[in-house]
Amino acid sequence: MTAVYLLRHGETEWSRTGRHTSRTDLSLTPTGERLAGEAGRLLGAFRGAGRPALVASSPRTRALRTAELAGLSVGLVTEDLAEWDYGEYEGMSTPQIRETVPGWTVWTHESPGGETAAQVGARARKVLERVRAALADGDVILVGHGHFSRVLVATWLSLDATAGVHFGLDAAAITVLGDERGEPQIKRLNVPPAPERREQHAGPAGTPGS
Question: What confidence tier does 48 reach under pLDDT thresholds 50, 70, 90?
Fold first, then answer.
């Protein structure tokens, strides 16, 4: 059976320190590069050696470099897989934002100058339309970002974009989406490439998407 594999990019300095990162084009940290390579090996263990029908990536350097280090040949680079646009909150951490907007989260509040949850959800539906068409020919691998990939999971399950809050996705982790007798299903969620070593480099609790 074919499946959709979501690979979040490896660690960046901003993801490590909890800063919201969308348009800013950051490189991976050395830890991020190492884990991206290990994620590729884990992906191979999950999938085997078969060629995927589609490998698509966000155009950000952190996603493309992750794909490269994971041994993936990207066939489609698209802004549709870009991270949630945080607008004026780009580069800020949640505690910093809450200094002026108490209780703020990307799931419940607006990001001035950025995308709404409804807009991100519409983008996710567009991506999944293309994914479902490609699944007829084999697996699909999507290399992208934290918050947007969590919205993709929610959308796969026919939930609202804001339901993505319930699905964690760490840097360089893999999530597998499939179905059971026609019903959408999460096969694997947030599987880290090297959990025993990731703990040494984990970011702060509540690390945002990037």
Answer: confident
20 catalytic residue (yes or no): no
Q: Which of 11, 33, 38, 83 is catalytic?
A: 83
9 carries an active-site annotation? yes
Tell me: domain 4-199, CATH 3.40.50.1000, correct?
no
Q: Which residue has the tokens 């691998």?
A: 141
pLDDT of 208 reads 62
| Number of neighbouring beta carbons within 10 Å of residue 45 | 8
| 184 φ, ψ (degrees, to nearest 5) | -60, 145
Distances (CA, A) of 97 to 19, 73, 109, 151: 10, 38, 11, 21
The structure's pTM equals: 0.92
Out of 89-93, 157-161, 179-183, pick the least confident: 179-183
Q: What are phi and psi of 189, to 5 degrees?
A: -135, 125
Domain boundaries, the chain: 4-199
